[in-house]
Amino acid sequence: MKTLTDQLTQYATYHRDRRNIVTHFIGIPMIVASICILLSRPTLSAELPWLTPGAVISVLITLYYLKLDVRYGVVLGAYLWACLAGAQAMAAWTTGAWLGMGVGLFLLGWVIQFVGHYFEGRKPAFVDDLIGLLIGPLFIAAEAGFLLGLRKDVEAEVNARAGAPR
To answer: Which residues of 73-111 are buried (b: 16+ CB within 10 A; e: fewer)?
Structure first.
């Protein structure tokens, strides 16, 4: 299994333009939230209405993030939990409203992502490696931490291997 730095470095090589990184701060959270919404139906247990495909997948993804890095895993697990809480409320909406919100956020998030990759002049990371779909949220969490002055060791290693953002 690749390390945290390996995964971030591979993803970062596709994301060195600061405008692209900014679009990812908007698009990735929208896409993650939309997937939680779209996977909030059906419930898998009448006794446990929160047990949905989205909840099961989110637990598995959080475990993966925790294995890569406990701190980022906790942050991303908390974000997924918040998305799931909102998605559960939206699952009670009419099918049209629920589906419209989920699909709308999903499409808008991807449009924003592709605008960023237009600035970058490079295809998205997931085109070459599907794990990029999981690493995107991790990359944004790491970039947010770097902006706050956290995990300078990780930032230095990623920038040494992928090049500094421009």
So the answer is: bebbbebbeebbeebbebbeeeeeebeebbeebbeebee
160: which 2 tokens?
Answer: 């040494």
For tokens 């956290």, the residue is 150
Sign (positive/negative) of CA torsion 98, 55, 139, 143?
positive
Domain count, the chain: 1
State pLDDT tens for residues 28-70.
999 999 999 999 998 877 788 789 999 999 999 999 999 999 9
Both tokens of residue 105?
Answer: 């956020």
Is 166 a domain residue? no
- 125 lies in a domain? yes
**C-alpha–C-alpha distance, residues 35 and 29, integer Å:** 10
Which amino acid is residue 146, in one-letter code?
F
- Please check whether residue 109 lies inside any domain of the structure: yes
Structural domain contains residue 84: yes
* Domain encompassing residue 37: 4-41+50-161
